[in-house]
Design goal:
The longest helix is centred in the N-terminal third of the chain and has 16 residues. This protein is of the alpha/beta class and 229 residues long. Helix 6 runs parallel beside helix 7. The chain is 33% helix and 10% strand. It has a four-stranded parallel sheet, with helices on both faces. It is built from eight helices and four strands; from the N terminus they run ααααβαβαβαβα. The chain folds into two domains: 49 residues, no CATH class; 146 residues, Rossmann fold (3-Layer(aba) Sandwich), CATH 3.40.50.11840.
Length: 229
């Protein structure tokens, strides 16, 4: 059986401005999907023939450009102007959404309360669900006390499936994710019926700034590249 080609965009060592995915006369690195997988690209682009998908993609591109000021200046120096929360509100408004879902971690309850206030002040209806909603014990997953935070098998598990169903039932048109754990966020994406965007992800060590150890991987966070040590 022929091996399927594997995209390796993260390994591309070409300057951004020289890449064929950016410039029509650009260069392609080894395994570049822009030139090596034309049939798959056609399949992906055919999805844009669906009116709802096309409009979503169109508004997302418009929103992307709207996040930079003075684009008419030449030569152009990027001037980003909009925060993530502002961008979410603007995109939701462009799409005509009125009701937003907020799925959040109990550890970020104060932040979730503030986010809900902002969304409401921006004119949206908000339906929200905390990760511990339903108080299903971790023993339901077959976990013993040793696999819980409090060493108690009656500890409530995070239930992203229930969160997704609550927001589905609440009529959310766009979901906003705030601080769900790794794995739990994946289950939420799987069961949510509305499209989902992420405001912030959980990183307990860095104050929810998960790129910090990536930037510092050659100094203070060398351990992440040397797990055997």
């Amino acid at each position: 059986m022929k091996k399927k080609p594997r995209a390796l965009c993260a390994d591309c060592d070409l300057e951004k401005s020289e890449r064929i995915c950016v410039q029509s006369e650009g260069k392609a690195s080894k395994a570049c999907p822009t030139v090596s997988q034309p049939e798959l690209l056609k399949r992906a682009n055919r999805e844009l023939e669906k009116p709802m998908i096309a409009e979503f993609a169109r508004q997302a591109s418009i929103q992307e450009a709207a996040c930079y000021a003075n684009r008419e200046q030449k030569p152009y120096v990027m001037q980003p102007t909009k925060t993530r929360i502002q961008e979410i509100c603007e995109f939701a408004r462009r799409m005509g959404y009125q009701r937003l879902g907020l799925a959040f971690c109990l550890g970020l309850a104060a932040e979730a309360n503030a986010v809900a206030d902002v969304l409401s002040e921006q004119g949206f209806e908000v339906v929200s669900a905390v990760c511990k909603a339903g108080r299903t014990p971790k023993s339901e997953l077959g976990l013993g006390a040793k696999d819980t935070i409090a060493l108690d098998d009656s500890e409530a598990m995070c239930n992203p499936i229930y969160q997704a169903m609550l927001l589905n039932q609440g009529g959310a048109e766009l979901n906003v994710l705030l601080g769900l754990c790794v794995g739990h966020d994946s289950l939420f994406f799987k069961y949510a019926e509305a499209p989902t965007t992420v405001l912030a992800v959980k990183d307990r060590v860095t104050g929810h700034n998960p790129l910090a150890p990536i930037y510092l991987r050659n100094s203070y966070y060398r351990k992440i590249t040397r797990p055997e040590l």
